[in-house]
Structures are given as structure tokens and as C-alpha cells.
Amino acid sequence: MSTQRILVVDDEPKIRMTLRGYLEADGFEVLEASDGPAGLAAAIRERPDLIVLDVMLPGLDGFEVLRRIRATRQVPVILLTARTEEVDRVIGFTAGSDDYVTKPFSARELALRARAILRRAEAPATEERTLRFDGLVIDPGTRTVTCDAGRTVELSALDFDLLVALARAPGRVFTRRGLIEHVWGRDFFGDERVVDVHIRTLRRALGDDASAPRFVGTVRAIGYRFLARPAG
């Protein structure tokens, strides 16, 4: 099996050096870029297995780099951000990132998250029945979602996995920790509120209204559940 490659795009040499040390100790090959244009070029040229991408970059910011990467290929992306505003996290996930880490952060935690994301991406496809609900069809085999009159719903890999976890058990109440274990894995380290951010982007993609949801409902102080009834 070939060594997996991770591209680290950050304008701070100390951060790149620290991440290189932890990621190489975990067996990854590490590539580096120090600004947005160089990071975008490396992502296209080198085709890494995962990208760690800072938001505040010279030349092109991380959100724009992410959008342009997503126009060419689907590769897992972890955003690094010093911004704490929820809107920045939502923009990042809408653009297609798989996770985010807020600075200052633990390099060891980031390495564990990278390993977990790559493990999910490598999981072999399984033959699963199509999930059909009123107004929604989810095909785990082709990883496609259609809503209402055949509208294709564009989801990141992680948002798709989150939707499937909920839809496999309609009506069941999932805690944030429960969803993390189903989707992110038991070795996830970080803020459980990452689930809330992904639920927001999932609802946005589905055209779901949080105040009167059709598909994903909030259970106050506990978590979330899938609301749609099976078709037929």
C-alpha cells in the first residue's frame, strides 16, 4: 500500500513544521505550500489524499482555494481557522470542507482527525438498499441524493454520511456524541458542536427549514432525529 500524502497549506512556517513532524510520525508523506495560489497549484498537481488548509492565506484565501479545488476533484479537506464566527464555519462547510480545527490547536488532535477522515474515505463500498422517503431518495451505493421532483442534492462526503446515519433510523433521537461515533468515529477529538454546523449545511442543501423541518428535526438539549416517513 502506497504512503498517503497530506498537503499542508499555511503561511506560518512554525505551524507547517509542527504538523509535518506529527503527520510524518504517523506515516504520512507531507507536502507544503505557504500561500493560496501555491496551495491550489500543489493540490491540482500533486493530487494529495487529504489537504490541511488555512483560511487566512495570502494571494487567495482558504475558502476560495477550497472552492477551486472542489471544481476539479473531491479530496478530503480540513480547514484551519483563527476565526470563531459561526458564519465562517458554515461558509467553509458549504464550500465542501470535511472538518475544521480552530487555532490554537493540538497538532496531535489534527493528525488523529486526518487519520479518521482517510479511514472513512477508504472504507469499501457496501451493497445497501436505496432509502426512499416522502420527498427524498438516498442511494448509499452511488452516494447520491435526490429531493422532491428529482432535484440532485450536492453534499460533501461527511454530510452524506451524516444524512445516511440519521435516515437509517427514522424517528430515533441521536445525541451529538452518538452521531459523532456513527460518522466521525469513536476516536474523534474535538468540539461536539461540529455536528451542529454540519446539520446546518445539510439542511441548507436539502432546502429544509429549521423552524419547520421536513427531514432533520432538532430535539432540544439532546440532539437530532430524521423526520421523513418511508415512501409507500
Automatic annotation (TrEMBL):
One of its GO terms (cellular component) is protein-DNA complex. InterPro entries: CheY-like_superfamily, OmpR/PhoB-type_DNA-bd, Sig_transdc_resp-reg_C-effctor, Sig_transdc_resp-reg_receiver, WalR-like, WH-like_DNA-bd_sf. Residues 128-228 form the OmpR/PhoB-type domain. Pfam families: Response_reg, Trans_reg_C. The keyword DNA-binding applies. Residues 5-118 form the Response regulatory domain. SUPFAM superfamilies: C-terminal effector domain of the bipartite response regulators (SSF46894), CheY-like (SSF52172). This is DNA-binding response regulator. Residues 128-228 bind DNA. It comes from Acrocarpospora macrocephala. The modification 4-aspartylphosphate is found at residue 54. GO terms for biological process: regulation of DNA-templated transcription. Keywords: DNA-binding, Phosphoprotein, Transcription, Transcription regulation, Two-component regulatory system. One of its GO terms (molecular function) is phosphorelay response regulator activity. The keyword Chaperone does not apply.
